[in-house]
Design goal:
Blueprint (H helix, E strand, L loop, with lengths): L4 H10 L1 H13 L1 H5 L3 H18 L4 H4 L2 H9 L4 H6 L4 H18 L2 H13 L3 H16 L4 H19 L15 E2 L2 E2 L6 E3 L2 E3 L2 H10 L21 H7 L7 H29 L8 H16 L8 H28 L1 H4 L10 H13 L5 H18 L21 H11 L27 H7 L2 H20 L1 H8 L8 H15 L5 H18 L5 H10 L11 H7 L6 H31 L15 H4 L3
Antiparallel strand pairs: 1-2, 3-4
Helix pairs in contact: 2-4, 4-6, 4-22, 6-22, 8-15, 8-19, 8-20, 9-10, 9-18, 10-11, 10-14, 10-16, 11-14, 11-18, 11-27, 14-16, 14-27, 15-22, 15-25, 15-26, 16-28, 19-20, 22-25, 23-25, 24-26, 24-28, 25-26, 26-28
Length: 620
């Protein structure tokens, strides 16, 4: 018996991944067969990896391992050069930075920071919104945005429960109907028809619609007319079990549901933009650094991207985007009254305030382990900042060039945390006996192994291997020649258009995979137009983190969507505006302080060449 079209489609859907894995190499095969040279072979590998990454037919991290066997077999790179890309300075910096973040989580310091900020800001709706967004934004600069969101969501839900509209029934009064999801159910008093009690709710409503109700006088109204003379509508109103003002309470519940959506989405969006601020905030930033380091070192130049230099570009963008998100979420979900200072201030909720205070008190006084983790964290940030700053001679200046990178302090601090005890060292225990128990340390390998995103490390390494292949095969030079057709387009317009395209694309695919694919192309494109590669690499890198429209865009989006209180259309409607205005903030940053600090108008390895029509392209 043959399969119907529907059954065939279902079967194809079931084996979709296997079909993509098998058919993609066959579909792309004409490229290396019809075009000779390493460029065609590398193009074949590039398109193959891009397809697997975008469709996720193979897990993204597993796809990143394909270059280990594909590049040597195609004759693009030797296996030694390929595998070397998986253990670079940038990857070790990422590893060490995340290790310190894991120690923050393990010792609950991140929760103390978040609750301290909430206590300080207050519980008026707009300030409470900022109270959840700001710690999420700040913590996402240093620890995983996924972990930050997962920590904040239970706090948000607990506080919102305190803000939920409540109606306590008075003595002798029927209880208020409950609310389920977005619909309000109204319970009716017993009705009678021809002397028979009607119990079915649908039948009751039918009776109301047909005005076939045997009226029952309101017992609280002594002067009520006889049953047969009562207006059916009045009878219906008297028979609703709604005390006091039902319409107002229904409106309150609708406002609360709206506020719930706003608070949940705000946390996710704050986590997304927070990662932009620092070099270790999100994997795309480190992917960019790895590509830039490789490009500049191949030309014998010092890389312009380090921890402080990235913050000069990324931190203001993250701050501007945070303000944009905060104001837009107020307008969209809380209303203009909460945003405009001319309206009367709303009072904070005492229940929410007490809940935040109680949660903070549960943490108890700050422990020895928290103090030590805070010291290690501050030490690492200071070592990153002052390794080789532009405004002074850094601590690494005494070493020969190339000996010290950002991974050195990251790994050093990580290993120290495996040694420092999590409790104050002592000789005797509470009973006065010699304390021989082995103390727990600030960081242990079991926690490290469980929380380190090993797949992300592989993905970054696969991206670096791909970049090396694109350069060595000559594909980079070929792409550069083809992209010269864009030379007539003003620089600011190209930055804006590319950022818009990437922000929409990154909503449907991994931002890490997207950045891995686009960084070498952006570098080639900029160099082919005689621009500083950073001019296109920076905005595109940041744009990969600004996914606001779909649950699959980023892990924080997926976490808040899984709460069951949001629909996809809720994210699309509010996220579209944020995508547009955050892109404008990227263009603003690139054309102002980014251009001034990084000298986007000059190709670094050709000091005599500047961007053609520089004033017309970038400055206008």
């Amino acid at each position: 018996m043959g399969l119907s079209a529907r059954e065939l489609l279902r079967l194809i859907g079931r084996y979709r991944n296997q079909l993509v894995v098998i058919l993609t190499p066959l579909v792309l095969l004409p490229l290396p067969l019809l075009v000779s040279g390493k460029e065609a072979l590398c193009g074949y590998a590039l398109l193959l990896l891009a397809t697997y990454w975008c469709t996720e037919a193979i897990p993204i991290a597993a796809t990143a391992l394909i270059p280990v066997f594909l590049f040597p077999m195609l004759g693009i790179l030797t296996v030694h050069v390929t595998v070397r890309a998986y253990m670079k300075d940038t990857i070790m910096m990422f590893f060490g930075g995340l290790a310190v973040a894991i120690a923050l989580e393990k010792n609950n310091l991140h929760k103390r920071i978040a609750l301290s900020i909430l206590r300080l800001i207050g519980t008026q709706p707009k300030w409470l919104l900022l109270g959840f967004m700001f710690p999420t934004w700040f913590l996402s600069m240093w620890i995983s945005n996924t972990a930050t969101t997962a920590m904040m969501i239970p706090m948000v839900e607990a506080v919102l429960e305190q803000l939920r509209p409540k109606h306590e029934a008075e003595e002798g009064e029927e209880a208020m109907p409950t609310y389920r999801g977005y619909e309000t159910e109204v319970e009716l008093f017993p009705m009678e028809r021809n002397g028979t009690v009607v119990s079915d709710e649908e039948e009751k409503r039918s009776l109301v619609d047909k005005t076939e109700i045997d009226a029952v006088p309101n017992p609280t109204t002594p002067d009520s007319p006889p049953a047969g003379q009562m207006d059916p509508l009045v009878t219906f109103q008297n028979q609703l079990s709604i005390p006091k003002c039902p319409v107002n309470l229904v409106q309150e519940q609708a406002r609360f549901d709206n506020m719930t959506k706003g608070f949940l989405l705000s946390v996710a969006y704050a986590a997304n933009v927070g990662g932009v601020a620092t070099l270790t905030g999100t994997p795309p930033n480190l992917i960019l650094k790895g590509f830039v380091d490789e490009i500049w070192q191949d030309r014998g130049l010092k890389s312009p991207v380090d921890f402080p230099s990235w913050m000069i570009y990324g931190f203001p963008i993250a701050a501007i985007c945070l303000v944009i998100v905060w104001y837009w979420m107020q307008l969209y979900y809380l209303g203009i009254k909460t945003t405009c200072v001319c309206w009367k201030k709303q009072k904070g909720d005492e229940g929410a305030k007490k809940l935040i205070e109680d949660e903070y008190q549960k943490l108890g006084p700050m422990r020895y382990a928290e103090y030590m983790v805070a010291i290690m964290f501050i030490l690492l940030v200071a070592l990153w900042f002052f390794r080789n700053p532009d405004f002074m001679s850094g601590w690494a200046a005494g070493y020969p060039q190339g000996f010290i990178g950002d991974s050195v302090p990251a790994i050093m601090v990580t290993l120290v945390m495996f040694v420092i005890p999590a409790t104050m060292p002592r000789i005797y225990d509470e009973d006065g006996e010699l304390d021989i128990q082995v103390p727990e340390t600030l960081l242990d390998w079991e926690t490290m192994h469980k929380k380190q995103p090993w797949g992300t490390h592989l993905l970054i390494g696969g991206g670096f291997a791909l970049a090396a292949a694109v350069t060595e095969s000559g594909l980079a030079a070929w792409i550069g020649l083809q992209l010269e057709v864009f030379e007539a387009l003003p620089g600011w317009a190209m930055v804006t258009v590319l950022s818009f395209l990437v922000t929409f694309l990154t909503n449907v695919t991994s931002n890490t995979a997207m950045c891995t694919l686009l960084m070498p192309i952006m570098a080639i494109m900029a160099e082919g137009l005689h621009w500083n590669p950073l001019y296109l690499m920076f905005p595109v890198c940041v744009a990969t983190s600004l996914a606001f429209m779909l649950p699959v865009g980023t892990p924080p989006n997926a976490i808040v969507f899984s709460s069951g209180k949001l629909r996809v259309i809720d994210m699309v409607k509010v996220g579209l505006f944020l995508n547009i205005f955050c892109v404008f903030s990227i263009t603003l940053a690139t054309e102002t302080w980014g251009r001034a600090y990084f000298d986007f108008g000059t190709l670094p390895w050709d000091v005599n060449a500047t961007m053609p029509g520089e004033d017309a392209k970038i400055g206008t």
